[in-house]
Write the structure tokens for this entry.
Amino acid sequence: MLTCTEPGEVGARVRAWRAGGARVGFVPTMGFLHRGHASLMDLARARCDRVVVSIYVNPLQFGPTEDLDRYPRDPEGDRALCEAHAVDLVFVPATLYPPGFATRVRVDGLTAGLCGAVRPGHFEGVATVVARLFGIVPAQVAVFGEKDWQQYVVIRRMAEDLALGVEVVAGPLVRDDDGLALSSRNRYLSPAERARGLTLHRALFAMRDGHEASVPALLEAGRAVLDVDRLDYLAVVDPWTLEPLERVDRPARALVAALVGSTRLIDNVALDPR
Ligand code: AMP
């Protein structure tokens, strides 16, 4: 497994692989890797000949009061996990924003609601770093997690709108044995907070497993299950436009974001039409 810190080095390596006929898959991450990230590496491996993982905690996507400074890091563990999942190249830049960097990528519409409404500037930070990463790593396929459903939809839109020439695919959300969506941020949770964090997926699964089609009734049922300190949103939306729905009479997505203690958790699930 190669480790690169310089953008030019990664670009040259990936272009050489492609010149040799290889299909290259790319998994961007912020590190502190877990089984959710590993599942994306495996998905990239299944679809591609070469797999690149980037590890970079992107300051642009954190708000001024968010957890950039304490975001968990584990370079050794990350390397071992990438190695165990047959990653060919790990890109670990010291920074992605050289002096003079002045560009921002904004995706309208899709970023207005849900996490975009609660975290101003977040998706602009995400779109900007991913656009730059796509420029540095000229892969044919990029893999994102359904864990961050809104992010996945935003990145797909950006890649298509800017004709970036990369196919954006998503891997399923991976959960811990107790049902909590795996997240690097789960390590912030005390045992008592973790127990309350479990109410996110319980609320979503209750909504998924009910036969109720009326969204107001579904949301009421979901809210009754939640035990959180601040509910940012519980919503049922069209999976691709992210517009709120009144009835689940076609495929839909239920999404939740909430603060438990000082930890912000998100989760989502697909809802079948009923
Ligand atoms: P992050 O390191 O949190 O920025 O996540 C990097 C990528 O891993 C994103 O595409 C996430 O959606 C994805 N990811 C994070 N957690 C999970 C999970 N539990 N299941 C599937 N994908 C995940």
Summary: The chain has a mean pLDDT of 98. The radius of gyration is 19 Å. Strands lie at 2-4, 24-29, 50-55, 89-91, 141-145, 167-171, 230-237, 252-260, 263-271.
